[in-house]
Amino acid sequence: MNAPETHIAAPLFGIIPRTHIRLGIWNPRKRITEAELQELAESIRLHGLMQPILVRPIAGEDDMYELVFGERRFRAAEIAALDGIPCQVRVMTDKEVRIAQNIENLQRQDVHPIEEAEGYELLMREDGYTADQLAEETGKSRSYIYGRLKLCALAPSAREAFYDGKLSASAALLVARIPVESLQEHATQEILNDGDPMSYRAAVEHIQERYMLNLDRARFSIKDAKLVKEAGSCEECPKRTGNQPMIYGDVSADICTDPNCFASKSRAHDDKVLEKAQKKGIPVYEGEEAKEFLDDTELVSTDDRLYQFERKVDLTAYNKFIEDVLPPEQLPTPVAYVRIDGKVKPMFEPTAMQVALEKAGVCESEEAIAARQDAQRASVDPAKAAEQEEKKRQQEETLQRKAAAADAETNVRVTAYRKIREAFKSGLPVAAWRVLAKEMLIDHSAPNTLLPDVYQWERNSDEDTIAFIEQASAEELQLLVMDMMFGNTLSVNQWEVHEDGGFDDESEEYQAFIALAASADVDIDALRTEMYPPEKNDEPTEAPKKAKAGRKKKTDTTETPDPAVAWPFPTGVRP
Predict the structure, then answer these.
(1) Of 39, 71, 209, 509, which residue is the catalytic one?
(2) Could you tell me the CATH number of the domain that includes residue 22?
(3) 71 is annotated as an active-site residue
(4) pLDDT of 465-494, one tens digit each?
């Protein structure tokens, strides 16, 4: 079949030969599956291309056009061997094309977050957009734009897992915040967990515990080869990235790749510090005593912030930690130590810490301030002094106006919320339940144990949950909120079960679950006996004592037990 002649209907629409159209270079949509194309191509064979694509003339080339919108339709039309393509023709500059594709087009619901991120990055790089301008253009928040842009730092394996739907958007952002690509890849494998992915909360805890191992911030000396004899010095250790440049050439030289060794050295260092402190008569507080001490003490530690101290040189650094501005050798002598959550913390007198900050130039001494003010007064003429005084007065007035505006806005929001509560006294509407469910989704997820029989999707993903929220009734949303709240109590992992078959069940979370069951007239003990009846021939054994510690929250990963399966421990040994 011969290609049809070009005939553009003045001034914007027409049928253009397929061979006269070239793909654009800035289309944010990078991944189009073959199945999608084949399905669309079959539709085009049967019905033709119902919606025109957008093209622009290519300068200097007669009858040649560049694709702006509609790459998926164009590629499907190629598969369908469509010779002429219905087109809308618009003269556009490169910048106008990028803006159209990467702002208007990126607001489609089906655009992938990575493609959205790359689109924003392109506009910032090529057209000078700032994140604030992008937020204004798209109607998104600044935090949303910054979160999307961070996804551009994803390692290839994490990016692929994200594209394939194995990694959720929230988990992908956690991985993207790890500054080292090789560590991102390890973290991605661990989060995916061989097809049984961690929940968002578990992924946060895992990354914080496993991937913040900068040797520059180690509590111990990385040169000490005797601290843990079998480990030796960190400087010579093959697990330090700087000692394997062929493997970690793109990584900072002082990253520890063995978190367990790092933890053992931290513990050994802390033990030595406390041993020396006790020999010197410096008090050491541990466990509950340490918590009580920290609640009452006026002493400070290196993880206190600078805003507690006076006369700071750099007012923008008021929120920094002491450890960010004072190296260990410039700290005053500790007057106490606490060990809490496995970490030893030296404690200092506030006045001694103020002096140390002054010596380091972080804070000014009273004498230095007085001398500087005297010098300023001597060098400033009266007219300039009056000008400075007026400027100071105006600044104070501005601060007062801002404080008044903040108080007013607080009053508005409180009043609005009270009206909301009044409006909802007889029950929340479905729109409100959708808001609550989406907020709950930030830190929770639908329990895996209820998939897919209760919720009609196979895997636990935020995207599927949000899709459900958007169409669910108020009653369904109430149940979803309850499911997310109690999901962590539904599954018990094998390592939580004691050797004798008992397990910890005194946690607040589990006790709340029992109370919920009671409110629904569900007797858990009777249900357990019904599902796992005792065997008649077994001698009853004494039930294990319950542990005092509450069960930690965990990812909901186990399957719902089959009532037909016999209880695997002797009769009477039950949680």
Answers:
(1) 71
(2) 3.90.1530.30
(3) yes
(4) 888 899 999 998 999 999 888 887 888 877
